[in-house]
Amino acid sequence: MHRRILLFVVLLCFASVVLAEEERAGGPFTTRLPTTRLHVTAPWEVEFEQFYDGIVPRRGGATHSFQTEVEIGLPGRIQIGFNEVLTHAPGDRLRHEEIVFETRFAFADWGKIPLNPAIFAEWHLREHDPDAFELKLLLAENLGSKWLWAFNVTFEHEVGGDLGSEYGLSQAILYTLVPSKLLAGIEMTLTRPTERGGHGKPQVECAIGPSIAWKPCKHAELMIAPLIGVTSHSPRLEIAVLLGIEF
After folding, report:
1. How far apart are CA 56 and CA 9, in angstroms?
2. Residue 8 — left, alpha, or beta (φ > 0 → left; ψ -120 to 50 → alpha)?
3. Could you tell me if 93 and 75 are in contact, meaning their C-beta atoms sit under 8 angstroms apart?
């Protein structure tokens, strides 16, 4: 199963590079998707985002996560952000989970470098678990005039406790149904956690499913991605919803 997943990822990445056109006009449809981030927002643009992540495990009740985020674009292709996360686990009340500080840097304006690379860093101040930092490489590209592809590579590491780490990737490929208004496609995630001194095989989680991104007006976005787990350690279902408002 893991080999088939890896083959799928490699083939999709290869196809994305081959299909990318030399002429890359305009910016991306968005700088965020339910599972995948891309590039940076325009200078002095402010974005308010409300995420919902519902996880239905193979056993037991569902867990719900609510993340409220504010992001600000700065000159020099820099973006900063702040968010708060609340969670609701089975049999428990809604709890404060963590506060996260984020920054992004794009190496060039959109369309100037193939795959439009950017780096992403977060610091997680957690309520119940050890604090952690997270690093990402963000890649994205317009494939012709109709397709948008985005790909993230992630590394997360705890700075206390068991010093656990997590490696992951996510990607999305969306097709334009209505220009600047409506896109639909597929998103997928893959994570591999490790613990210092841990034993046994890592519990690899992978999920894939449809995705839709709708922009009802110039300053608002609604995105939904219901993902189905495809490994034995994955949740049965994960529903990611994102509402974004730009100022």
Report:
1. 24
2. alpha
3. no
205 compared with 201, residue with greater pLDDT: 205
The model's pLDDT over 56-90, given as tens digits with 9 standing for 90+, comes to 999 889 999 999 999 999 999 999 999 999 999 99
Least Cα distance to 168 among 37, 62, 48, 25 occurs for 37
Q: Which two tokens stand for residue 31?
A: 């700088």
CA 135-141-144 angle, to 5 degrees, is 170
Which pLDDT belongs to residue 135?
98
Query: Which one of 2.40.50.140, 2.40.50.100, 2.40.160.40, 3.40.640.10 gives the CATH number of domain 2-16+35-246?
Result: 2.40.160.40
Which structure tokens are listed for 214? 């709708």
The backbone torsions φ and ψ at residue 8, rounded to the nearest 5 degrees and listed phi first, read -60, -45
What distance in Å separates the CA atoms of residue 244 and residue 62, rounded to the nearest whole number? Answer: 24
Domain ranges, ordered by start, for the chain: 2-16+35-246
Detail the DSSP E strand segments found in the chain. Answer: 46-56, 63-74, 78-88, 95-106, 118-126, 132-143, 147-158, 165-178, 182-194, 205-217, 220-229, 237-246
Rounded CA-CA distance 12/188 in Å is 11
Residue position matching structure tokens 């590394």: 155
Distance CA 70, CA 143 (A): 29
Residue % of the chain over a pLDDT of 90: 70
- Reading phi first (left if > 0) and then psi (alpha if -120 to 50, else beta), residue 144 is in left
pLDDT tens track for 222-235: 999 999 999 988 99
